[in-house]
Design a protein that fits this description.
Elements lengths: L2 H15 L10 H15 L3 E12 L2 E22 L8 H19 L13 E2 L9 E3 L1 E6 L21 E4 L4 H6 L7 H4 L5 E5 L2 E5 L6 E3 L3 H16 L15 E2 L2 E4 L13 E6 L31 E13 L4 E7 L6
Antiparallel strand pairs: 1-2, 1-14, 2-5, 2-13, 3-4, 4-9, 5-6, 7-8, 10-11, 11-13, 12-13
Length: 336
């Protein structure tokens, strides 16, 4: 069975096993429904150019063309949650949760400064300091709608459905200790790599990319954790245990994949909230809500401390129409 066929089979199996999800959790069928509902807004599909191919047969060679398109794909489901192994995505919690618990409590438990299972605690300082230090676990799992391209109309993806690209329980030592990233300039200098507009308006810093974040607003803290997770998996050779989103090949097409995720830059990726209060659109984190009547996180606090987003990233591709790709002509820049 080819890779696309396997993806479809896995999708059917997982969706078929998914019953109604209780509050504070989400299942595969709900992820599919909520992502599909947001697709008209998040996908941003458009024709952007022409590709030229050389096709040769025993009768000779000729140049053929194909339409180049651009659109966003839902690559990952990124979750930030309280309890070790407690991903709010029910099927992932049932299949991969035990692996995380075994990694932390077995091989790494004696080395960690945070006791296994203590995630999600808020550690406030003195009445004057109010550090509001939170800790969250995080996972980045391949979205079930990846790798279902329609030749000529849809691009493939760097992600594979249901593949765990990052699990904080497996990366327990770096996720809890902040080593070596606590020594990076972006960790030490305010204003560098902030989820927001700078040191004076920030939800939190991207670095160090750990489960610790100082933030009084729980949904914002979870969003910072999600941004850090996306930052890790869209880059190679990071000091974490993870699988990088990489590669530029797709069956039957030439693909131009996106680059690394950059906070506040919708051209590198956008977020769609799946849990709680699912969104029908996509945006970046870091809104300046200081002048608003309510905080960005107002009404979005989950009772169990569990949050999930779909990460949409921009792709470009054209259908293969010959043995050799010659060149392409772009009519417009993408993402716009």
């Amino acid at each position: 069975m080819n890779r696309t066929g396997s993806s479809v089979l896995a999708l059917v199996l997982f969706a078929g096993l998914s019953g109604p999800a209780p509050g504070g959790s989400i299942n595969t069928a709900q992820i599919l429904a909520r992502t599909t509902a947001a697709a008209p807004s998040c996908m941003q599909w458009m024709p952007i150019g022409t590709c030229f191919w050389l096709r040769c047969t025993w009768r000779g060679c000729r140049v053929r063309s194909s339409l180049k398109i651009g659109h966003y794909n839902p690559d990952l489901v990124v979750a930030a949650y309280n309890e070790l192994g407690g991903n709010p995505w029910r099927e992932i919690r049932a299949t991969l949760g035990m692996a995380q618990k075994a990694a932390v409590r077995g091989l790494l438990g004696s080395l960690l400064s945070v006791a296994p299972g203590s995630a999600g605690n808020r550690a406030e300082g003195s009445p004057r300091s109010h550090t509001n230090l939170m800790f969250r676990e995080a996972d980045a799992i391949g979205h079930p709608l990846t790798q279902l391209p329609v030749p000529g109309l849809m691009c493939g993806s760097q992600a594979r459905p249901f593949v765990p690209y990052f699990q904080s329980g497996i990366d327990a030592l770096a996720w809890r200790s902040a080593l070596p990233e606590m020594l990076y300039p972006a960790s030490l200098l305010p204003g560098l790599r902030e989820v927001g507009e700078g040191a004076l308006q920030t939800w939190g810093s991207v670095y160090p990319r750990t489960g610790w974040v100082t933030q009084s607003d729980e949904p914002k803290a979870a969003a910072v954790i999600a941004q850090r997770t996306g930052d890790i998996v869209t880059r190679r050779l990071q000091p974490h245990i993870y699988v990088a989103l990489a590669g530029s090949s797709a069956s039957g097409q030439r693909m131009w994949p996106p680059g690394a995720l950059i906070e506040g830059d919708g051209r590198s990726g956008q977020w769609q909230r799946l849990l709680p209060e699912p969104e029908s659109g996509c945006d970046v984190f870091g809104d300046d809500d200081r002048g608003d009547a309510a905080s960005w996180g107002g009404g979005l606090v989950d009772a169990g401390g569990d949050y999930a987003w779909a990460l949409w990233r921009p792709y470009q591709c054209c259908r293969r129409r010959g043995q050799w790709f010659l060149f392409n002509v772009d009519w417009m820049a993408y993402p716009p």
